[in-house]
Design a protein that fits this description.
The complex is a heterodimer of chains A (303) and B (366).
Chain A: H1 2-9, H2 20-53, H3 57-61, H4 75-82, H5 84-117, H6 123-134, H7 138-156, H8 166-170, H9 172-188, H10 192-201, H11 205-216, H12 218-234, H13 237-242, H14 251-259, E1 260-261, E2 264-265, H15 267-289
Antiparallel strand pairs in A: 1-2
Helix pairs in contact in A: 2-15, 4-15, 5-6, 5-9, 5-12, 5-14, 6-9, 9-12, 10-11, 12-15, 14-15
Chain B: E1 4-13, E2 16-26, E3 31-35, H1 42-50, E4 57-62, E5 65-66, E6 77-80, H2 92-102, H3 107-121, H4 136-149, E7 154-158, H5 166-183, E8 186-191, H6 194-200, E9 203-208, E10 211-216, H7 218-223, H8 228-233, E11 240-249, E12 252-256, E13 262-264, H9 267-273, E14 282-286, E15 291-293, E16 302-314, E17 319-325, E18 328-334, E19 345-351, E20 356-359
Parallel strand pairs in B: 3-8, 3-9, 6-7, 7-8
Antiparallel strand pairs in B: 1-2, 1-4, 4-5, 9-10, 11-12, 11-14, 12-13, 14-20, 15-19, 16-17, 16-19, 17-18
Helix pairs in contact in B: 2-3, 2-4, 3-4
Classes of the chains: A mainly alpha (303), B alpha+beta (366).
Family (chain B): Belongs to the ABC transporter superfamily.
Keywords (chain B): ATP-binding, Nucleotide-binding, Transport
GO molecular function (chain B): ATP binding
């Protein structure tokens, strides 16, 4: 857009074919084209969910246009939000995700700091190792994990299987490696002189971490937090395996197991539940994006 | 405030010796500059004094105490880094007071010290700004302020002016000198810029390949360099080194530069060099300012010769002339009105009272 404005502003200047501004204009057009294409592709399912969630069961099964609501109703929302079961799932999901985020941060931040800054024997190998553990799919891990927790339960007598809090031990196996990896990157981007200056100023390692590194790497911490929350909130396989009683279920498993009865799909409520379930991460993204300030390190050093 | 001493300090990285057993005594209140080309070990030496690098061998003493295993925070030092290393999320005042706050100084004293340092460095107006709102020179002042408020035993500067533009560098150089005159803290300053070293230092330490080449006042280094490295490193344009040999002609000692050019040595120099074997391969070290245009009345010891100039560089207050002596490029400094022109012949005068004679192989000044 701006390129045309520039061309008009300078009528005496001819734009040659293949010039920078012409190339840029085409690059912009192509980017818009693909962005619109992707937007349509990715927004269609949620829009379909929204449309379906506003329909009654009768209208869903009727052979009308599936992309239009003829008799909008909020009955699905009312039913779900007044059902103790759904609220229970929601509560379980919230408490699990929030506690997992806290546990993840408490482990990942010091781990990343140590791996990024304290050069000790094997630290580089350990950093790579942390990342490699993330590459092992959870579908491979859940059986050994189930066995392990079963043994621990038998041995200690503490109920772990089929309890929501078992997820607090299991989710960090997914979130900690990745968050540690992200934050190693962020911490490594902080100039070495900054912690040397802090060291000379009299800060201990812990003070350097809490008073210099965490504030400076805040955008990275927020990215890691968002990631940990999203992973915990959307996790399906582990809760499906480790929790079975209805009062112990989290949202994704709860919706699919209680709203699908045999071959009867309660589509209206499934869509409503999914939509409501997608809301918290969306809200968190929206709020934290404001704090997602790039270039916080600007001014620390030359450049 | 305290003196600093290095005893046979060695730094090894795997199989590379970055610092090869250096000895250095820095007196209380002294301003010492470590200077040398990149990779000479000057920054490593500074970082070892700071405690940011372990020493492989030897001892470092601050105020008479061996600090080899003392962590940086307990050495009571302050350091100014090349890239400032300001805490980006803190204001100028917070940056400067960080060290004091960690040590739980009373608030009133912190405020007083920060105010005083800000006044000294002329950054009182910037006290509430964040580093990103400051220019390079202002950031460097804040970094110095952070060092000053701590009132440490020793200041360490690691190429603090390298990131500034030429004009600002000159200005900040004077600032640093002024600050040192006021606070009188023992200072170790690292730079690769010999002009900075000459202008700031009480004593300059010239380093090369992990060793100390020479320690001395700026004047000593300039007029009495010990080695070819020091002679060539200090001074700009650099000293000329011309292959030469000694010969006896009719009872006087002569210095032969080329087949055409040979000068009788002044009596003082002749007495000094007379014992040297005539066969030894020597280098004449002569600074460009001792190669000037010829006058009608030449002082004793000043000899003239004719040459053809290759290139001239008018600098305003002087003109640099470049020519060759048997293939050795030589630089001289002549008066801008002396009529030096590219490609033109010129009669030049060499002041042999200020000459140096070096052993070509060892590089030692004789």
């Amino acid at each position: 857009m701006s390129t045309f404005a520039i061309d008009k502003a300078g009528p005496s200047r001819k734009v040659k074919y293949g010039s920078m501004s012409r190339d840029r204009a085409w690059a912009l057009r192509w980017s818009y084209f693909f962005l619109v294409l992707f937007a349509i592709f990715f927004l269609t399912p949620p829009i379909y969910m929204l449309i379906t969630s506003l329909k009654s069961s009768a209208e869903i099964s009727a052979a009308t246009n599936p992309w239009w609501v003829f008799h909008p109703t909020l009955s699905n929302y009312v039913e779900l939000l007044t059902s103790n079961q759904f609220l229970r799932f929601f509560w379980n999901s919230s408490i699990v995700s929030i506690v997992v985020v806290i546990i993840t941060m408490l482990i990942s931040i010091p781990a990343a700091f140590a791996l990024a800054r304290m050069k000790f024997w094997g630290s580089a190998t350990l950093a790579t190792g942390v990342f490699l553990t993330y590459l092992i799919p959870d579908s491979l891990l859940f059986i050994p994990l189930f066995k392990m927790l079963g043994v621990v339960q038998d041995y200690t007598g503490i109920m772990l299987l089929n309890r929501w809090y078992v997820l607090l031990f299991i989710y960090p196996t997914l979130t900690v490696p990745f968050c540690t990896w992200i934050m190693i990157g962020y911490f490594a981007s902080i100039p070495k002189e900054l912690d040397e200056a802090a060291l000379i100023d009299g800060a201990s390692w812990l003070q350097t971490l809490t008073r210099i590194f965490i504030p400076v790497a805040l955008p990275g911490l927020i990215a890691a937090t968002i990631f940990a929350f999203t992973v915990s909130w959307a996790q399906f396989l582990y809760p499906l395996v480790f929790t079975t009683s209805v009062d112990q279920l989290v949202l994704p498993v709860g919706i699919t197991t209680t709203l699908i009865k045999g071959d009867v799909f309660n589509w209206g409520q499934i869509m409503t539940g999914a939509l409501l379930g997608a809301a918290p991460p969306l809200i968190i993204y929206a709020f934290l994006m404001d704090y997602y300030i790039a270039g916080l390190t600007a001014g620390a050093t030359k450049g | 405030m305290a003196d600093v001493a290095l005893r046979k300090v060695v730094k090894r990285y795997d199989d590379v010796e970055a610092v090869r057993g250096i000895d250095l005594d820095i007196a209380d209140h002294e301003f010492i500059v470590l200077v040398g080309p990149s990779g000479c070990g000057k920054s490593t030496t500074l970082r070892m004094i700071a405690g940011l690098e372990d020493i492989s061998d030897g001892d470092i003493m601050i105020g008479g105490d061996i600090v080899n295993d003392v962590p940086p925070k307990d050495r009571d030092i302050a350091m100014v880094f090349q890239n400032y290393a300001l805490y980006p999320h803190m204001t100028v005042a917070e940056n400067m007071s960080f060290g004091l706050r960690l040590k739980h100084y009373p608030k009133a004293e912190i405020k007083a010290r920060v105010t005083e340092a800000a006044r000294l460095l002329d950054i009182t107006d910037l006290i509430d700004r964040k580093p990103k709102q400051l220019s390079g020179g202002q950031r460097q002042r804040v970094a110095m302020g952070r060092a000053i408020v701590r009132n440490p035993k020793v200041f360490l500067f690691d190429e603090p002016l390298s990131n500034l533009d030429a004009k600002l560098r000159v200005q900040m150089r004077i600032e640093i000198k002024k600050v040192h005159q006021k606070v009188r803290t023992t200072t170790v300053y690292v730079t690769h810029d010999q002009v900075e070293a000459m202008t700031l230092a009480d004593r300059v330490v010239v380093m090369n390949k992990g060793c100390i080449e020479q320690i001395g006042t700026p004047n000593e280094l300039y007029h009495k360099p010990a080695t070819r490295f020091v002679a060539g490193f200090i001074g700009s344009p650099a000293m000329n080194f011309i292959p030469c040999r000694l010969e006896d002609v009719g009872g006087t000692l002569q210095l032969r530069l080329t087949d055409r050019i040979a000068f009788p040595l002044p009596p003082a120099r002749a007495a000094r060099y007379n014992a040297l074997p005539r066969t030894e391969k020597l280098l004449l070290g002569i600074r460009p300012e001792h190669l000037t245009e010829s006058h009608a009345h030449l002082a004793p010891g000043v000899e003239t010769f004719d040459t053809v100039l290759d290139v001239t560089e008018p600098m305003g207050m002087e003109t640099l002339v470049y020519f060759g002596l048997d293939g050795t490029p030589v630089c001289g400094r002549v008066d801008p009105n002396a009529g030096a022109k590219d490609g033109a012949p010129m009669r030049l005068a060499m002041d042999l009272n200020n000459m140096h004679l070096l052993n070509e192989e060892t590089g030692v000044v004789l």
